Amino acid sequence: MPLFPDLFADERERRVALAAGQVVSEAERCVQCGICAYDCPVGIDVRSYAWRGLPVTDGRCIRCGECVRRCPRGTLSMLAADVQCLVATPAEILPFTPGEGP
Q: From residue 75, how far is each of 10, 16, 26, 57, 98 by CA, in Å?
């Protein structure tokens, strides 16, 4: 039995939510202050997406939400993408019956 079952359940839910999310913006609220880009831990120019009203599609985005949290005007938000989370067991990934060859 795990020591902290609730902790790991919450962490798994948080990771699934972040992985399925995307940073989006309301262009009309952006004043191009650049705080979102300055605070991005991986150096994405979030401001260039925000002022145009585009979702952040940079592959380096780790969906930490730091840009959303730091935006002084509430321009950015984390939107859940329409992604279905599939979980497979190892047996489903690599079907194997002992005693049978390839």
A: 27, 24, 5, 16, 56
For 61-86, letters b (16+ CB in 10 Å) and e give bebeebbbebbeeebbebeeeeeeee
In whole angstroms, give the CA distance from residue 30 to residue 51: 5
Sign of CA dihedral 28, 34, 39, 40: positive
Domain ranges in the chain?
13-93
pLDDT digits (tens, 9 = 90+) for 25-45: 999 999 999 999 999 999 999
Residue where the block lists tokens 């609220």: 29
> Is 13-93 assigned to CATH 3.30.70?
yes
Q: Identify which of 74, 77, 18, 65 has the alpha carbon closest to the alpha carbon of residue 39.
A: 65
pTM (predicted TM-score): 0.62
